[in-house]
Fold each of these.
Amino acid sequence: MTNTKQPARDKSQLTRDDWLDAAAGEVAAGGFGNLRVLTLSKKLGVTRGSFYWHFKDHEDLVVSFLNRWRDRRLHELQYWKPRGGDVETELRQILELLLTDASRNIRRLQVELAVRDFARRNDYAADLVNQVDEARIDQNCELYQRLSQDPQRIRDLSLLMYVATIGSQVVLTGKKGDAETIRRVEDLMARVALGQRDDD
């Protein structure tokens, strides 16, 4: 009888990112409580010894995962950074990008929600989530300061639109994320923001 069991892969063949990618799948599926070294080892077809080639322990894996999540979220801000063009055009383009991306990339949203849930009981995760939130809101301010000269109004609008975007991403993921619904939500959010212009 032929043995179809695949041999364990050499630990040198796996990178740190391979482990973190596998961890992302587990976190997306069941949160950080789902993140177990033995489970990851089996999925990757290696022994647990390979894990310790890249990480000191389980805590190191969690911290590394959170750091990579933070770094990637900060890096991607460049893709919807305001360019100084017409404010309405840019606002609608940014909203379309954010809402359509969320409806297509379900795993990415699942990971973000899992990180936010973990942040409720883990101070380190909470600090990283706060860093990401503040960076996103600050970037929103770059756009909305072209609608108002009032710093507090700009900050409030940036926060409101950020919270609305996150909520919309959750609701529009999956079946509800059809093109027409996304377009309507995008239009509604744009009209709310544009309605906050300073009076002439």
Amino acid sequence: MFSNKLSNEEPILKSIFKLSEISLTQINDQSKLKKIILEQHKKYLAVILDLQICSNDDLSFWKQLLDLSPLPILIFSADSSKIYHDIQQQKATIHLAKPITDFCRYIHNEKEEKQRPVDVLEYIQLTKEVFFNITGHCIGKDSRCTPLSSTEFKLLFLLVRNRGKIFSSHELLDQLDLPGLATLYVHIQNIRSKIEKNPHDPQILINHRGRGYLVKIEDIE
């Protein structure tokens, strides 16, 4: 941590980091900080600039560090009169940035999902007479293979992969990115017409009233 104001008091940040069991090194010399960044950066997690009285020289120094440092650089003011203001400002920034961070997390998860090896069978036996052909995107029943639409496949695959877990209607809407409940119910009816012996008395794709939907797979010896 670099501070542009010498003080005999223990910096607020130092007290905070003590609670987190993270070691904080205080530096009050710009040239020494530059040397550490260039030669010893692997020993540190980040650089924190405690700019209690921010001058043009401090801003120029900060810009130099941005060009030099392979470490993230954080700016903080330990001026006790500004602590509440800074905390509120940081909370507001986090709140406003949430849609962006959520989107980045979604992209990251999608990338991880694509890189993860597929650990599923080519087909899953739902009952003795019905099987879910995963590679063929269809339902095998009565010696015929009935194709599933893209959304029907995603819905059934989600429930089969999480067999025994109940998904609420709104969770399914979010997972499948559907426009509304009416659309979801149509897809559920279509799937039941393809997998159930009697779609009006479903035994595979089951609804627990007030809770949601799940797939029940018959034990086959």
Amino acid sequence: MARIRDTYIEDELALADAGVRIVPINIVDPIAELILGVSAQNDGVNEDNYAHDVFTKVELVDGSDVLMSMDLKQLQAMHFYNRKVVPWMGLDEWQYTTKYAYQNLIFGRDLMDFDYAFDPTRFRNPQLRVTWDLTAGGVAVGDGGFKAGSAKLTVIARCIEQAPRRPGAFFMTKEIYDWETAASGDEPVVMPTDYPWRMLMVRVLESTVGMQENITDLKLSCDQDAYVPFQYHTEFLLRIMVEWFGMTLIQAKWVANNADWKQTFLGLCQSGNIDFRSGISGGLLDTYRSQANISTDGVNTPAFGTFHGSGYHSTWCIPFGDPNQPEEWFKAPDYKSIRLLATQDNAGGAASVVLQQVRPH
């Protein structure tokens, strides 16, 4: 009978303050998912600077063949859209606490998916490659940032033992395009047609600007509009995503000064609460701009934030059919050309496209 075995590949491996760690995947059983745990300790109070800011790229490679590639924010968002649960983000600014973030590289529909999982034996030299820099969030190492020498890495493989068959394919998820938004016009993104698609994710982030202000519409065009699988106003898309994936819950422990703007990590907040600790006199939630404003009479005042909404990490995600029904996934190889058109209305947003394809072994 098939069963799950969790195997540590790295267990809180101590890291330098910046670098690239290559982790060989020396496993013969199919892997349902890889749990990636990263952490770093605050050196004093550390505001608006999180593990997902400083662990900047996660890749699964086999030589020059890139099987997965995302930054940690994209990986956390894809974790949510695949599992409908927000991964542990470590949103804790309090002094000397350790910020942990756990997120999964997901290869199949669930843990016991015998058809879709990563089979390391089908590759010559599969490796996980993690890139980080404790200053990447814009804060120097030391007091007010992350503590020098505090970064750690954990990797756990969730393996399928005694599976009745080897998996025929796995979910290959990676960023395929990035750009800075313009004040107007469409950004055409040429999309790959080599494998079927399961999900498409678009991200855009600019401080104090709503994501639906940077990109107002998304359209997918096949063979010069011979077939248009979707065309959405992005503000509307934020709302209907709740039907597909459920509401996103974000909880944070802040250190606030007067008139501080704090991130909510949601493109659209339906509800929110700021727990007013001693010295906190008020708060204002910006529904569309991924932030909350706090009024306080003190300095470095503790506060808690809880928010519900959509657009986790300022992303839109579009599933193709039922995510659990392969026959409903988008058959991209049936078309000669596919373009994603992103209609822009505000310059300066950092935008990217992440695609989840179904790659055969």
Amino acid sequence: MLHIDQSRAFARARDMRPTGIDRVERHLAQALASTSSVTGLVRSGGRVWHGPVDELFEVVDSADVLDLAALATPWRDATRRRRETALRQRFGRGGRLADGFERGATYFAAGHNLPTYREMAVLREASVRLAILVHDIIPLTHPKLSRTAPAARFQERMTGVARHADVILHLSDVGREKWRTAFGPPPPGQMHDVLKLGPTGAPPLTRAPSERPEFLALSTIEPRKGHDLLLDLWEQFPEPPRLHLVGRRGWHDAAFFRRLDAAVASGAVIEHPDLDDAGVRALMARCRALLFPSVAEGYGLPVAEALTANLPVIASDLPELREIHGERVRYVTVSDREAWMLAISPFLCDRLVAGGGAPDLPSWDEVALQVRAIM
């Protein structure tokens, strides 16, 4: 039996808009549940609940549950407490980490909300196989682009994966080689493979770019995503086009956010922190290109979604993006501001510069079958 961990979705229930990893975890869990016999699990507060994948997502997505204990313990996350109450109401008290796994079962995590090193050892001692999808190891390869405490926690979890996992899935051959560089040759019996993901957006759309040039950047606003470069470029335009930043503010220095606030006040930059999927697609239809100046990526889900929607993409020249998306993308050296200006220039005059073509990506049911075959 395959047990898929939905703890990341549960832990991030208070966040209004999902990140790329959130979307992958949900799509893959639902596809696995629809194509084969799997069960879901949620880890929270030292307890584990097992249940049908869709029913666990119902709890994750549920409205407020009356929980007087949450009101009496304000130091705890109230949203999480309410959902723990919903889990108890639906699935009982929950159990210890290794409870609910039959001998020889497989634990599968498609997100980075992972058990600790010690918890992984406990699962192995209970004869549970561990399969982990590693989206990237950016906190290890680019520590200056990550906050200190989360990076240390990430290091501990990934060390546990390297030591205890039976199967490690990567999103590209480049990612697999970076893992080998960081952790060395795998221990005997550990299998590594590349999982080709599908797009999480809707089918191609009919583009109708506005008369005034508009561009789209789609990601959490944090240092590695290159928003500082975009602000540098927009400050150089005599008559700046409109730039839509879709994504919530993450961590950054105060000086950057002051610059961003000034750009928003000028009207050249528009922030959309909580835009839903329909709103994103409406912007994709209006904008002339997706700008993706990221410093480091594991997959680049916004690139796949833009290409699927027939939106041209200008992106940093990263090996992961080249491997996954090929020549459908216009690549620019991440730090070369002049090259970025040259890449954007044709889109200022031409409303309908052709996109790079739809990517050859599998459906999520096909991704689920890949996972099953690898297991």
